[in-house]
Recover the amino acids of this structure.
């Protein structure tokens, strides 16, 4: 299960910063998160909740594809 963009997390305005918002839970900026689940800290409540619900981050999805099969070479 995978979403294209993870933008439904609670955000708060950064005090004194025009047009800048961050995740309520991990305090990462929206520009840092950039709609990616792995943009949140691994300790982020939102990220943990979605990962617990079976959503994949881009990181783990690409890691799965990197699993390669080693071949045994005989002389
Ligand atoms: Zn977060």
């Amino acid at each position: 299960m995978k979403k294209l963009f993870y933008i439904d997390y609670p955000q708060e305005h950064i005090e004194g910063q025009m047009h800048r918002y961050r995740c309520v839970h991990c305090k990462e900026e929206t520009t840092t998160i950039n709609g990616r689940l792995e943009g949140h800290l691994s300790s982020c409540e939102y990220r943990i909740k979605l990962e617990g619900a079976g959503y994949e981050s881009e990181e783990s999805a690409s890691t799965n594809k990197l699993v390669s099969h080693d071949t045994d070479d005989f002389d």
The pocket of zinc ion is lined by residues 9, 23, 25-26, 28, 40, 44, 46-47 (CB under 6 Å). The mean pLDDT is 84. Residues 45-52 form the longest helix (8 residues).
